[in-house]
Amino acid sequence: MSAERIVLVGGLWLDSSVWTEVVAELDKRGREAVPVHLPADRDTALADQLAAVLAAVEEAPGRVVLAGHSAACGLAWLAADARPDRIAKVALIGGWPAKEGGAYADFFPIADGFMAFPGWAPFEGADAADLDERQRQAFAAAAVPVPEAVARGTVRYASRRRYDIPVTLICPEYTPAQARAWLDAGELPELPEVKHLDMLDLDSGHWPMLTRPAELASLLASL
């Protein structure tokens, strides 16, 4: 079993507390995990959130397993690009990085400088099928609006050494077979050039840290 610290980065609208159960489950499995607090003030830019991830990577005693969720798969990959020597593996949970020159996460309307949680309508179906009403209400109440300069930040890479880092794509609301088909069709930017790419299935919706924390922790602990 690997001994690297696991650094956890949540996707849009999530604060670091979303990882509480996953961290506890990883501790049971003998793995240390640290969730990243992402700044989200009005003047926060994509570079500021990347700096928070890099700080967590650099504070680790050795190399880390860096896990990004959803849009934050992009933050994880930007960190891998910036610090390839400090990252042993990258886990991408329910997402993949944006292409060079693309927007980080410009998915929903911006109002008053923020991209607010849009409600559950865009996520009906496989994304949110395993969230009960209590979980949906708690998620919406705790949702952290995403600063405009983060959502619309331009993704820039600097080092091809990121492609040497082993990557595991954890597939929650879709299957590895679907992900493989998207990869073959050229629909997953950055991943075709990764030299060591694995895919793992996870029977859950888009937020397995809330609905399947033990199962997600088991997969992360195996990396």
TrEMBL record:
Record field: transmembrane: none
Pfam family, one: Abhydrolase_6
Domain AB hydrolase-1: 6-218
Highest taxon in the source lineage: Bacteria
Name of the protein in its database record: Esterase
The species this protein was found in: Actinoplanes ianthinogenes
